[in-house]
């Protein structure tokens, strides 16, 4: 008779027991699993940024090790019914680090979770899959069968393993990291080698490295080459990646980057121009990159000759003609036996034995030594002892001063500003000196004019002439006066012996007073001073405070990449594109606000530019209306809370159909539909809470900061007089809305009631921008707030954080930490919108940043550069 098994469930003191009742006493069979416990899959090498993974007892036989344990790599464990090689149905159980159900036991050296079998409704003769993850990447998995009758597991060897307690399964595993391979880029050919461009890798380690699956890129993330299986490098060996294999050339400027299969950077190198031969490390494999004299593809770099002809005097110097050599390398060079010649091969001078030139040093060959003069036309040539040309320079006429490399040691030859025999070349230019700031209304001790050297070298300004708008008012700067690179020099009224008027000018002339170098004219006294922002390059604006002899506007150099490019089509928006906000997704979206006709645009990246989304009626932007469907709100900036699907909030200045009247309001729109026109769901008219504003001087900027960020950093509610408490503000949308006003340069924080359309001001802050705040953007991942202005203050960016310093007078308030100048490659244009990508868009430590130009300068409204992916100190 076939045995009939009946499963009887009994509860005793909260525990569950399974009893097997058999029809035959001779039947000793228990409910065994359909297959034995399988060995861990991927248990030694896994596709994640970690080294080794092993299951511990009772699941596997690995060992915990606190010394190698990495407590940052696993984030969750999931259990599912495993059918046909995949999970079926809902998860059986889930444990996460975030919920504290998965823990990293650093003392024991293992991850731990406990599967409560009481909470699982088991399916007879089914296999369960236990999977460990790092975020969404599976880093280890194992299949397990629970033996019903004994609450046991079967091991891979078929033996039974009783559970530690009757009703739980301890899930334990170990993760250990391994170091990145000791592989570096060693030499690069970017200008067409044999048979094309290439990059050479070198293994500095003591064991063979397998680079199969590693990824090579240049500076463009779309250029991807995955190294094929079998790509290995022996210790001290080389591996050359050829253009024919990776399928793209290397440009200038450019980069080479090597990534692990999971995206971690192993090594990289970046250059701005093509090398004359190649770029390589000197000393080989360990030193910094330099321009090599010879290509050594697949072999040790030739670092023996790194000497350049750096400066030439051909017209009778002191005491005669001379040629200056320079060593730009990192090690001394032995010049013994090197040959110097002019253009005549019979004129040859052998440099004496024992002559060396230290790294970064100069060596001058004088006419008295080589015993022949240099003519015009002529040449200076340097040969290695074996007759190989090391370097040369030819000219057709004598220089007014000397010919020298600019930049010193590396650049092309130019006519230098002055002779610098045996020293760094004078690559300065009088045009580097700018009038930088002017005080015309009785400063301390009187009127003054500030000069600034924007160049990379000191400039001798002795003999320069300073005038106001009257040619009879002339002051000559004393002989021998210099301005260091990026330094200031102030000409005082007492020295000039003339003052500056309300309608006047400041002019700077080269020695002799004929050639105008720079000038600035004004029609009325400034309330403070007139100054360039940023220093030396920006337009003149009314400064926030005089900075005599110091940096204007408290500016620092732009912290990100200085490679501003246009990223929209030509003449797409027809000016007035005023606000931007970036939303990550699939695809990424750049939302934009246009202030005439007030509209919202949904932009997607296509064909290398941001272009209006052709779907759902977004192709020409969607006009916005007030809540009653009327009017033409002047849309200046926009933001969202948890995402655009939760509503788009627009800062507006007025109704353009009544454009002489101020109406500073925040409007909310549903942007998820297909309607061609957007009608506001809410309006918060802030007129009663703000000072009287001109019709075109209202709300220009808006951003949202979530309650969690404000509370965690102790944000202070000035209105309530205590720490911000979200519970005090009903229906306020989970955060505060920060708006910037053009008329007074003040940032206001509001709690907006979405039920009543009421609002409460929480705090306010003056930026000091003389022409107002044009854009605000909060970085939720780095917890810092950007506030920007337009061309009227030179395109400055202020960075604010919540002050968390105990005892600080601004504790809990927004605190200014940095004021950055715009990128030097960004013209001083009417940028009113500002946005940036999330941390997930970071490449080589930088993420994209965007500006929108309300004036559509040159037919383009959107420009792009990059900012660091780290919080500013």
Report how far apart the termini are. Answer: 81 Å
Instruction: Give the strand tally.
Output: 70
Total count of helical runs of at least 4 residues: 4
| CATH architecture name of the largest domain | 7 Propeller
The residue-averaged pLDDT reads 86
Classify the fold: give the CATH topology of the largest domain: Methylamine Dehydrogenase, Chain H
Percent range of helical residues = under 10%
Strand-pairing-aware structural class = mainly beta
Summarize the structure in words.
With 873 residues, the chain is mostly beta strands. The protein has five domains: 52-176, no CATH class; 183-292, Immunoglobulin-like (Sandwich), CATH 2.60.40.1260; 308-327 and 342-415, no CATH class; 430-554, Lamin Tail domain (Immunoglobulin-like), CATH 2.60.40.1260; 576-837, Methylamine Dehydrogenase, Chain H (7 Propeller), CATH 2.130.10. Helix content is 2%, strand content 42%. It contains four helices and 70 strands. Strands 48, 49, 50, 51, 52 and 56 form a six-stranded mixed sheet that branches. The chain has a five-stranded antiparallel sheet with strand order 20-15-14-23-24. A five-stranded antiparallel sheet has the order 31-26-25-34-35. The radius of gyration is 36 Å and the shape is flat.
């Amino acid at each position: 008779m076939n045995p009939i098994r009946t499963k009887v469930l009994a509860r005793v003191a909260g525990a569950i027991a399974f009893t097997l009742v058999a029809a035959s006493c001779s039947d000793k069979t228990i409910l065994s699993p359909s297959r034995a416990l399988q060995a861990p899959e991927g248990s030694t090498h896994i596709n994640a940024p970690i080294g080794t993974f092993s299951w511990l007892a009772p699941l596997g036989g690995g060992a915990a090790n606190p010394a190698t344990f990495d407590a940052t790599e696993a984030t969750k464990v999931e259990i599912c019914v495993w059918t046909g090689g995949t999970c079926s149905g809902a998860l059986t159980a889930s444990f996460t680090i975030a919920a504290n159900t998965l823990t990293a036991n650093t003392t024991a050296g293992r991850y731990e979770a406990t599967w409560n079998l009481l909470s699982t409704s088991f399916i007879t003769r089914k296999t369960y899959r236990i999977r460990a993850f790092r975020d969404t990447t599976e880093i280890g998995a194992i299949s397990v069968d629970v033996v019903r009758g004994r609450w046991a597991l079967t091991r891979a060897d078929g033996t039974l393993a009783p559970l530690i307690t009757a009703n739980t399964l301890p899930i334990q595993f170990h993760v250990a990291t391994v170091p990145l391979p000791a592989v570096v880029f060693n030499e690069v050919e970017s200008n067409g080698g044999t048979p094309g461009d290439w990059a050479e890798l070198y293994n500095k380690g003591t064991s063979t490295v397998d680079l199969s699956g590693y990824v090579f890129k240049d500076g463009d993330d779309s250029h991807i080459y995955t190294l094929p299986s079998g790509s290995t490098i022996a210790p001290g060996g080389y591996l050359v990646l050829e253009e024919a294999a990776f399928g793209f050339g290397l440009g200038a400027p450019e980069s080479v980057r090597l990534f692990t299969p999971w995206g971690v950077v192993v090594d990289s190198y970046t250059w701005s121009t093509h090398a004359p031969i190649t770029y390589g490390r000197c000393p080989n494999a360990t030193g910094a990159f330099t321009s090599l004299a010879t290509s050594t593809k697949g072999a040790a770099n030739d670092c023996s000759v790194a000497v350049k002809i750096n400066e030439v005097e051909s017209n009778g110097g002191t005491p005669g003609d001379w040629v200056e050599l320079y060593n730009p390398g990192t090690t001394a060079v032995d010049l013994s036996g090197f040959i110097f010649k002019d253009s005549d091969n019979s004129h040859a001078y052998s440099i004496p034995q024992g002559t060396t030139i230290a790294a970064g040093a100069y060596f001058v060959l004088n006419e008295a030594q080589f015993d022949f003069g240099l003519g015009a036309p002529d040449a200076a040539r340097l040969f290695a002892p074996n007759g190989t040309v090391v370097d040369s320079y030819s000219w057709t006429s004598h220089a007014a001063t000397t010919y020298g490399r600019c930049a010193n040691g590396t650049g092309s030859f130019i006519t230098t500003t002055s002779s610098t025999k045996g020293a760094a070349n004078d690559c300065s230019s009088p045009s580097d000196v700018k009038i930088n700031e002017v005080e015309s209304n009785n400063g301390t001790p009187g009127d003054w004019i500030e000069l600034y050297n924007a160049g990379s070298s000191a400039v001798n300004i002795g003999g320069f002439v300073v005038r106001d708008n009257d040619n009879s008012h002339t002051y000559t700067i004393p002989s021998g006066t210099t301005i260091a690179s990026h330094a200031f020099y102030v000409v005082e009224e007492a020295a000039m012996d003339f003052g500056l008027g309300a309608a006047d000018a400041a002019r700077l002339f080269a020695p002799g007073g004929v050639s105008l170098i720079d000038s600035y004219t004004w029609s009325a006294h400034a309330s403070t001073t007139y100054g360039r922002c940023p220093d030396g390059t920006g337009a003149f604006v009314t400064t926030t405070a005089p900075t005599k002899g110091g940096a204007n506007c408290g500016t620092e150099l732009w912290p990100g990449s200085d490679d501003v490019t246009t990223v929209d089509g030509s003449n797409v928006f027809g000016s007035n594109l005023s606000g931007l906000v970036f939303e990550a997704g699939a695809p990424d979206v750049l939302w934009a606000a246009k202030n005439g006709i007030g509209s919202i645009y949904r932009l997607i990246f296509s064909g290398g530019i941001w272009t209006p989304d052709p779907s759902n009626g977004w192709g020409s932007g969607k006009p916005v209306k007030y809540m009653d469907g009327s009017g033409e709100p002047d849309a200046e900036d926009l933001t969202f809370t948890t995402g655009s699907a939760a509503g788009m909030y627009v800062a507006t200045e007025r109704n353009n159909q009544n454009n002489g009247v101020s109406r500073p309001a925040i409007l909310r729109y549903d942007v998820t539909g297909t309607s061609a026109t957007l009608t506001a769901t809410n309006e918060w008219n802030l007129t009663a809470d703000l000072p009287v504003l001109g019709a075109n001087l209202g709300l220009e900027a808006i951003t949202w900061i979530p309650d969690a960020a404000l509370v965690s950093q102790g944000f202070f509610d000035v209105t309530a007089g205590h720490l911000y408490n979200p519970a005090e503000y009903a229906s306020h949308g989970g955060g505060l809305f920060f708006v910037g006003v053009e008329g007074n340069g003040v940032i206001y924080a509001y709690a907006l009631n979405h039920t009543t359309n009421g609002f409460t001001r929480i705090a306010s802050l003056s930026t000091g921008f003389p022409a107002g705040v044009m854009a605000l953007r909060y970085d939720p991942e780095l917890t810092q707030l950007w506030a920007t202005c337009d061309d009227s203050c030179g395109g400055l960016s202020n960075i604010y954080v919540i002050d968390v310093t105990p005892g600080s007078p601004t504790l809990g308030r927004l605190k200014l930490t940095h004021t950055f100048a715009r990128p030097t490659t960004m013209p001083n244009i009417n940028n009113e919108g500002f946005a940036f990508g999330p941390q997930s868009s970071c490449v080589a430590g930088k993420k994209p940043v965007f500006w929108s130009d309300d004036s559509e300068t040159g037919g383009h409204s959107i420009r792009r550069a990059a900012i660091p992916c780290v919080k500013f100190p």
